[in-house]
Specification:
Order of helices and strands: HHHHHHH
Oligomer: single chain
Number of strands: 0
Low-confidence stretches: none
Length: 141
């Protein structure tokens, strides 16, 4: 149980922090235009963007780990808790204005995640031989 909690926290924190760090780096870099593709490569020289990419790599590793022992329908909604981290960091680290409507949306998403988390994390898969035996037994009755 502690392992799962750690992985879900890593998913939320790495995702939110990575996105915020990318935004911070892009604010320093400025607008990118498609007619100047070389400009995008200068992003990889910005330390905020490099650290953001590392955080997003940590998110991806944690996400793959969670998918290895839980259903996608359980893991994907749990990643939505990253919205809370993103909103919080955006407000206090990037000094963005987060309206009450946005906070309400974040709380609504978090509530939905709570509903999903109450169910089983992995669908039980029955052995095909066991299913065939149950079907045969039902037909005989």
């Amino acid at each position: 149980m502690l392992k799962k909690l750690f992985i879900y926290l890593a998913i939320a924190c790495c995702n939110g922090a990575g996105d915020v760090l990318l935004k911070r780096g892009m604010d320093e870099l400025g607008e990118i235009h498609l007619n100047n593709p070389a400009h995008i490569f200068s992003a990889f020289l910005n330390p905020w963007i490099v650290v953001g990419i590392l955080f997003l790599a940590g998110f991806f590793y944690s996400y793959l780990t969670a998918l290895s022992w839980a259903d996608l329908t359980y893991v994907l909604p749990a990643t939505a808790f990253g919205y809370v981290v993103t909103a919080f960091l955006s407000r206090f680290f990037l000094h963005e204005a987060v309206s009450p409507w946005r906070w309400a949306g974040v709380l609504l998403i978090t509530g939905g995640v709570g509903l999903v988390a109450r169910g089983p994390s992995l669908t039980e898969r029955r052995d095909t031989n066991q299913l065939a035996a149950q079907k045969e037994q039902h037909e005989l009755a």
